[in-house]
Design brief:
The protein has 11 helices and no strands. With about 260 residues, the chain is mainly alpha-helical.
Length: about 260
C-alpha cells in the first residue's frame, strides 16, 4: 500500500482527474487496480502465446507486456475525460441558450438548473449534482465552485464561472452568458473549418493507402505468384484481408477522432 501512496504522490493531478472522470476511486486504489489488471492481462497474453509456440522464453517478455498494459489501462481516466468533454461540447451551446432564456424569462436560477437537468442528457447530470448539493444545504456559490472544479469541460467551466461572477457582483447574468456562448460558437466554427482543411488530405491518403495500394498490390501479388508457379494458401489471403481491414479501421478512427464534438 505504501508503494501506491508513493506513486500517487508523484501524480498530483490524478485525484482531480478521477474526480472529473466521475471514477469513485482514490488515487491509491486506482493505481492498485490498474497494476492488478496489467499483471493479469500480461500473464494471460503470455500464456496464450505459450500455448501456440510452447517456448518458455515468451515469459521473458512479461515485463514489457506488463508495462504496455499498465500504460494502456492507466490512460482510461484520460480517455473517459476526453469522451465526457466531447459529449458536453455537443450540448453546451443549446444548454447555455436555454439557461439564458430561462433567466431572461424571470425563472429563478435554482429552477433553471432543475429544468436543464431534466432536458439535457449529458450536461443535465452536472446540473442535477448542483441541485442536489443545494438541496443538501450547500450555498449556491459554493455549489457552483465545486462543480467548476469537478467538470472536465473548459467550455462548461467558463459558463459556470461567468454565472458565478454575475451572482457575486449582482450584475445581469444573461448578457455575460450570451458573450460566453458567442465565444464558444466562434471557437466551434473555427474547429469545423480546421476539420474541413484536414479532411481533404486525410481522404486522399485514405484512397491511396487503404484502397488503391492494397488493391493493386494484391492483384500484382496474385499475378506474380501465378507466373512463378507459387500458390498462396488461404491463410495468407485472410492475413492480407485482415491487414487491409485494420488499415481502413485506423483511418476511420483518425477521421472520427479529428471530427469536432459539435452537433451540426
Amino acid at each position: 500500500m505504501e508503494l501506491y501512496k508513493l506513486l500517487s504522490r508523484s501524480m498530483p493531478n490524478l485525484k482531480l482527474k478521477l474526480l472529473q472522470a466521475r471514477i469513485p476511486d482514490t488515487p491509491e486504489h486506482y493505481l492498485r487496480k490498474t497494476v492488478f489488471n496489467a499483471v493479469f492481462l500480461g500473464l494471460a497474453l503470455c500464456f496464450i502465446v505459450f500455448t501456440f509456440i510452447s517456448k518458455p522464453i515468451v515469459f521473458a517478455f512479461f515485463p514489457l507486456v506488463f508495462l504496455i498494459a499498465f500504460v494502456y489501462l492507466f490512460g482510461y481516466v484520460d480517455l473517459k475525460i476526453e469522451r465526457m468533454k466531447r459529449n458536453i461540447s455537443k450540448e453546451i451551446v443549446y444548454a447555455g441558450r436555454f439557461l439564458i432564456i430561462e433567466i431572461e424569462s424571470g425563472v429563478p436560477v435554482y429552477q433553471a438548473f432543475r429544468n436543464i437537468a431534466r432536458n439535457y442528457e449529458t450536461i443535465g447530470v452536472y446540473f442535477q449534482e448542483l441541485v442536489e448539493r443545494i438541496d443538501l444545504g450547500t450555498s449556491l456559490e459554493e455549489a457552483l465552485n465545486e462543480l467548476i472544479t469537478s467538470t472536465p469541460s473548459p467550455d462548461l467551466r467558463k459558463l459556470l464561472w461567468q454565472l458565478l461572477n454575475s451572482i457575486r457582483t449582482g450584475s445581469e447574468a444573461s448578457h455575460a452568458l450570451t458573450n460566453v456562448i458567442d465565444q464558444i460558437v466562434r471557437e466551434q466554427q473555427i474547429a469545423v473549418k480546421e476539420y474541413g482543411r484536414k479532411l481533404n488530405p486525410l481522404a486522399m491518403f485514405y484512397m491511396m493507402i487503404a484502397v488503391i495500394v492494397p488493391s493493386l498490390g494484391t492483384i500484382m501479388l496474385i499475378v506474380l505468384t501465378s507466373f512463378l508457379g507459387f500458390k498462396l494458401s488461404l491463410l495468407i489471403y485472410i492475413i492480407i484481408a485482415l491487414f487491409i481491414g485494420f488499415i481502413q479501421f485506423m483511418f476511420i478512427a483518425v477521421i472520427r477522432s479529428n471530427r469536432p464534438a459539435i452537433e451540426m
